[in-house]
Amino acid sequence: MVSPNNHREHLRRLAGKNNHRPRPARQRSFTGDIEHVAAETYLITHLAFTLLRYLGVGYRWITKLLALGCYAMLLMPGFLQVAYYYFFSSKVKRSIVYGDQPRNRLDLYLPADVSEPKPVLIFVTGGAWIIGYKAWGSLLGLQLAERDIIVACTDYRNFPQGTISDMVNDTCQGISFVINNIASYGGDPNRIYLMGQSAGAHISSCALLEQAAIESGNRDSVSWSVSQIKAYFGLSGGYNLLDLVDHFHNRGLYRSIFLSIMEAEQSLKKFSPEIKIQDPCIKDSIPLLPPMFLFHGTGDYSIPSIASERFADALTKAGARAELTLYDGKTHTDLFLQDPLRGGKEDLFEHVVSIVHADDSDALAKDATAPPRKRLVPEILLKLAHNISPF
């Protein structure tokens, strides 16, 4: 584990290596930022080619790839603004090490003022278990930081670097790091929230249930407790893998690949939170779970909204506290990308903020007078992106 002070000292030594004359801090920072941009670009490109290698090249994926390219170009005005903030804002602490694996890194998005401890949201990104990446949460981090909420976006090993158990273990380790170290960055360890989107919702819910099962078994060696998570937010997630195998296969994430990610067919039940929550063997774990808030768009074709409906029903029947919110006609990317890029007031965003700030009257009063968020992409481009999205 690397402390913030040791990390800064390490960077200072690297900056001064082979150069006895100190250079201005701005120059060192700018050079480091450019190097980081190059490294991030390489990694994203590598992820894209890895995805293509596993999906194969055929008519279906050529059309999807073209649609994805057009989709990204339409949203590029917003992506560029968020990328500039991500790489050059002093309020973004990038690639903090939380474990010993190459992808065990996380990004922190800090509010302008951290003179008092702030609530913290741990975010686990999506990416079909193949192209998940911490920077996908930069738009969410930017917007929640404006509301005085620290956001920690955790990275994790993707397939083929790792399989689902590695992803869950990495996520557990990232949560542990945040809980045990966030106070040194201005966060309140007593106000920690967990959120996952798409594949990240699946992985984070698996991590939460696994940790609850460990605690209910009275094991001593735990580095964090489910009781330290005040609420869980699952956005557009899939929670029953048995129901999704054929659906993903028909959409191009072929059965053989998906089963390799999930460690063979016999592991599908083990990594299906909807099924696991109904297992009598973990009934003692249920009271440990935090309130579970699930969000899904009814126009989601990547993961149908019935996935969240059934998980919410299973949670409620098992005795957990669950709340489901459906957004009429919203697609897999509307809630996470197009709507936030639109700016203004957005129901999902305001709902999450209201839950995080529920016990802070001053923060709620500040939220009530907060100006509408800035629009990052013209409406016509957002509508075209909605229509052309391959997700």
How does the SSE layout of this entry go?
Layout: H1 4-16, H2 25-55, H3 59-74, H4 76-88, E1 92-97, E2 105-109, E3 118-124, H5 138-145, E4 150-154, H6 164-181, E5 187-197, H7 199-216, E6 229-235, H8 241-250, H9 255-261, H10 273-276, E7 292-297, H11 306-318, E8 322-327, H12 334-342, H13 347-356, H14 361-368, H15 379-388
Parallel strand pairs: 3-4, 3-5, 5-6, 6-7, 7-8
Antiparallel strand pairs: 1-2, 2-4
EC number: 3.1.1.n2
Region (Disordered): 1-27
Subcellular location: Endoplasmic reticulum membrane; Golgi apparatus membrane
Structure description:
- This protein is of the alpha/beta class and 391 residues long.
- The chain has 15 helices and eight strands.
- It has helices at residues 4-16, 25-55, 59-74, 76-88, 138-145, 164-181, 199-216, 241-250, 255-261, 273-276, 306-318, 334-342, 347-356, 361-368, 379-388, and strands spanning 92-97, 105-109, 118-124, 150-154, 187-197, 229-235, 292-297, 322-327.
- Strands 1-2-4-3-5-6-7-8 form an eight-stranded mixed β-sheet, sandwiched between helices.
- The longest helix is centred in the N-terminal third of the chain and has 31 residues, at 25-55.
- It is globular, with a radius of gyration of 21 Å.
- It starts with a helix and ends with a helix.
- The model is unreliable at 10-28 (pLDDT under 50).
- Belongs to the AB hydrolase superfamily. Isoprenylcysteine methylesterase family.
- Residues 106-315 form the BD-FAE-like domain.
- Keywords: Endoplasmic reticulum, Golgi apparatus, Hydrolase, Membrane, Transmembrane, Transmembrane helix.
